[in-house]
Amino acid sequence: MEVKSSDGKSHANCGVVPIWIWGCESTRRTVLLDLPVKIVIIQHTVSPPCNTDHACESSLKSIRDYHINHLNFTDIGPSFLIGGNGKVYEGAGWKHVGAHTRGYNDKAIAVSFIGDFSYDLPTPEALQAAEDLLSCGVKNYYLTPNYRIVGHRQLSATDSPGDKLQEHISTWSHWTYAL
Question: Is the pLDDT of residue 11 over 90?
Fold first, then answer.
C-alpha cells in the first residue's frame, strides 16, 4: 500500500534515492524480506563522512565495490545508507534481504550512517532523515508499528555504530536493550 500526501504524490519509496540512480544499475539482490519487519539495526560505515551529493555517491560506489568485489556479497550490504547531506540512499532497500548482520539479514532492516560516529554524531539532517525514513516505513507497512531499534554492536562483535551514535539511539523511543 502506498501512502499519498494531500498533493496526490506517492511516498512509498520514502524519499530514498534509488540504487539505480546513485549506483548506475539496479540491485543485484533477489531474495525478498517477509514484511513488515520488526527490527531496525543502526550501523555506521567507518568511512569518511560525506556532506554533498557528489561525495556521498562516490562513497557509496566505493562501499558497494568493496562489498561486491572484496567481501563477495551479492550487492551492497545495508538496507539504507544515510549521508551527512540528509539524503537516504537505497542499498538492499525495504523489500530485499541485505548482508549487514549475521543471523538478522532476513528479519531486519539495517540503516547505516556514512562515516565514523565513535566521537561525533551524524549531522542533524542525517539524524532527521533516519527518523523520517522509519516513520515512512511504518506508514507504508514495511515496518511494524512496534518495531525495535538496536545498535549493530548489540547483535555482533563490532564497535558499530560508534560510541556517540549508540548513546544517541538509546534515547529513541523504539530503542531496546535486547531483542
Answer: no
